[in-house]
Amino acid sequence: MSTRIVYCVSDHTGVTVEAVAKSVLSQFPGFECSRIVLPFVDSVEKAREAAGRIAATPGALVFSTLTDPAARAVLREAGAPLFDAFELIAPAVEAALGQPAVPGAGHTHGMAPDYEARMAAVNFSLAADDGLAPQRLAEADLILVGVSRVGKTPTALYLALHFGLAVANYPLTPDELARDALPGCLNAHLPRLRGLTLDPARLAAIRQARYPGSRYASLPQCRSELVAAEALFARHGVPVLDTTRMSVEEIAARLRQSLK
Amino acid sequence: MSTRIVYCVSDHTGVTVEAVAKSVLSQFPGFECSRIVLPFVDSVEKAREAAGRIAATPGALVFSTLTDPAARAVLREAGAPLFDAFELIAPAVEAALGQPAVPGAGHTHGMAPDYEARMAAVNFSLAADDGLAPQRLAEADLILVGVSRVGKTPTALYLALHFGLAVANYPLTPDELARDALPGCLNAHLPRLRGLTLDPARLAAIRQARYPGSRYASLPQCRSELVAAEALFARHGVPVLDTTRMSVEEIAARLRQSLK
User: What pTM was estimated for this model as a whole?
Assistant: First the structure.
């Protein structure tokens, strides 16, 4: 099957419609596509422009989240199959609530009330990155612990950006691991510690990309650090997440779940 | 209308189903709800557990993205109105593609092939945060410029985490603004510069939270920095985004759009 173009058209950022298109299409094995996101299609004129582009693309499919039925109608004139999440889902919700949907009533994002909290969390997570500011660990919602390059920083930033969680991260250095003890400043915060671990080969590959040929990046070194870290986690009852096959979204969701 | 509980049930992270629930419900004005995400409901047993919790919640609504029809059926036994995005959207896609959906065929996330690129982008964006590493600006896909606390860092990290874009950010300090010239290292990269600006009152509020009562956080100071920065942007033809009423998702989508 040849690769088809899937347009994801939104009157806002396009984040939701792209996620829906990805999810739904992942259930069609063998269907190969390349997605093009058209965000901020928030007028009939812009819908007309998008429709022109779609009509010029042979075999295109369209996923959309357009609140304005008029814009949706214009988009449909492109002639491509169109799946609008609102059109397909809202009627069922209307029936359940006994209340009609009001197109354009709201937007998912915009200056959400949690914006400040999320930005404050990002600032905290940067300030408490990589063992900086151990005196501020008491402010953390979560403290990620693990060896170098195991994915602590991106995970902390993702949790901060998305969920407004204040997430510190603290590295387990070879010195610390040789002492076979948790860094002292972590002992007061055990319930909020989460260990991250990885498959040794994968950690080695990540380190190699940065310091090719170094001892630091060698498989035996990675393996021994990970084994020592996991032993420490087990001894202190720190929950551990093996992130080898996980996306940052999945790691974040698992960690959030562990907070409940 | 009283606040109702909306469960967002997913066999994976729950990111997509929560976004769908937010989007759809934003079209029902006056409907107040509080969302509970139940991620990783990936077996009939877990669906049964979720159904028990839902059944015990009066007036609950359920949005779901469950690929397994058996798990969906169990969830439906809770008796609450259930809107499954796959169930509602997939039939239309099946008809258009002439191919049946295969439940459980794929997941949106998992170790996506772009994972490494996104992590590399985060590392770059951290290395090139706040004017660090000016010698690496040539590697940047985008360079965000603006006064202190205008939102450069969270925006850069969001773009890196989500889209694998290498985004540097460079502050315009009062000294630089007094010289009325762009920092020299930016001149070679004009096409990739994007200015961020804010309403002065909002910037002042953000700075006040950090340095209450300071001159730095005063409204006149914020206003004069922003005016000077905007004049610089205009003189060099740097596209400017006023982020006052935007979420980080929206800022990111606008900046991405400006790259095309």
Answer: 0.86
